[in-house]
Write the structure tokens for this entry.
Amino acid sequence: MTTLSPTSAEPATEPDPAPPSRPARRRAPLLLVLGLAAALLSAALLSAGTGAYGIPVGEVAGSVLHRLHLGGAALDRVGESVLWNVRLPRVVLALLVGASLGCAGALMQGVFGNPLAEPGVIGISAGAAVGAVGAIALGLTFLGNWTVTVCAFAAGLSTVGLVYLLSRSGGRSEVVTLILTGIAVNAFAGALIGLFVFLADNAQISQITFWQLGSLSQATWPKVLAVLPCALAGLAVAPLYARKLDLLALGERSARHLGVDVERLRIVLILVVALLTAAAVAVAGIITFVGLLVPHLLRMAAGPGHRFLIPGSALAGALVLVVADLAARTAVAPAELPLGVLTALFGSPFFFWLLRRTRRRQGGWA
Amino acid sequence: MIGKLLTRTPRRIPARPEPGSQYADARALTVRLGGRTVLDGVHLAATAGEVLALVGPNGAGKSTLLAALAADLPAAGGEVRVDGRPADAWSAPELALRRAVLPQSAALSFPFTVAEVVRMGRAPWAGTPAEDEDGAAVAAAMAATEVTPFSARPFAALSGGERARVALARTLAQRAPLLLLDEPTAALDLRHQELVLRICRQRAAAGDAVVVVLHDLGLASAYADRVAVLHGGRIAAQGPPAEVFEADLLSRIYRQPIEVVAHPGTGTPLVVPVRSR
């Protein structure tokens, strides 16, 4: 193969043969992943034990180990019932929804090559919301308790398909066209939601409003099972595309020059994002800022490499949502704050701060 | 559809081209962009072991021709062949083993460091035996373009000229037999312009086919084996610089009086605009 050597006339300023590396940056991702995993485990145990019926964290762990046949001890009847029928489904759902949103955000920003993109941009959340609101307003019950979930999921997926088809021309989908199409679809979805609200009676309107605010209070094991396959499939496929997403940061053309089939990458990742976001929105309503903030923070902490960013965002997203849900249901107990309101309330000012800080530090977004 | 999306086709690893053989060529190539014919029946060959310079006034079709050779643009007529096959018959991963492209402007959407950006040039070789030389290729490319001192800095924090050299280092690290460079000297100071063209010569000497778009006719004259002068989407002249750089032709094409004089020492043609003061 060819070798490049500095010419004798012009000695290179630093003829160091070893590839340069920054050890701190290499190690940071691993430490962060371990730290996040530990924090997530403790937050989940704490959340499972906290509430009107308090259970010490040690006993929560004991009961979980007992059910896994790894020792530990079962709680009394009431404790077991509270833990396994009320708390744990909710914690697991928060974990799945958070992981899905965080991962979807990281993927979305990678696909669009824009650190400010978020799953709502191309209209998935709004599309899924149309499905859910429609199901509530029209009083659909063809699938029993799962009707709203399934409708939200179906509508979310078909919205992505629609956005993708509308924004394609000449075998390519340009980012600007995609985002503009997303804006149009968001507006249309908003109109449809308005129409359904107009058609709904008072009881349905309050149900719709509550769902739109985002909440995990209706968590049950069947709901967990409804999300589990989609979330797990999405979370498992996403890391396979990490390296290609890194290359996409160079722009579509350069990524293609480096062997990435950009169109194919887009289709796969948009499907994955649809899977993750629609699943999350279907069970928990519209929860904003997790998908936007989490990847952003991680990028600042350990660099933009997607091999770390994708699993890291899933972990951190899960952590944020487990903690946020704990806060939502304990801050003004016995009442409960809507989760979506809480994340937006804390998320948006924080995001402003992040924006300014990052911009100053790296001198712009390009 | 899902199955098709997830399957990975086996890649054919390219052999080194024979020196002097045509590695890529355009045959009667016509390209239309937005209804306008930008290239019209162009014949051009990139030869292994040679530096070919594309020159011509703004809008002559230089970058379009380079993009067509890179298989970025579909041909409206004629064809582009790379390594013995039509360019569009190669899959993206296989083409990436055969040609490296330096775009006119280097953008990056996330704050990767310089070293990370250069390492991206090795991505096509992942999973092949050549993966073993990743570290050496990255280090050599960074040393050659003199970007090693700021390898740990974020790409976005660099100046325009530094970014251009990092982008070149990424392209060199790819170690593809066909090197397509679109105005690699545009943002560079005098010293680094010379450096970049010396690198082109080294790559050609090592057996690669190098095609480079240049605005500086002096650089083209000094470093290119062959020059193709584009004008209005056609090739007006093609051949060694000493034959092609002729005052009447250049004056007509650039619509600017130009004189060509031989360098007193080397005899290389020097192209200078006629300036009345």
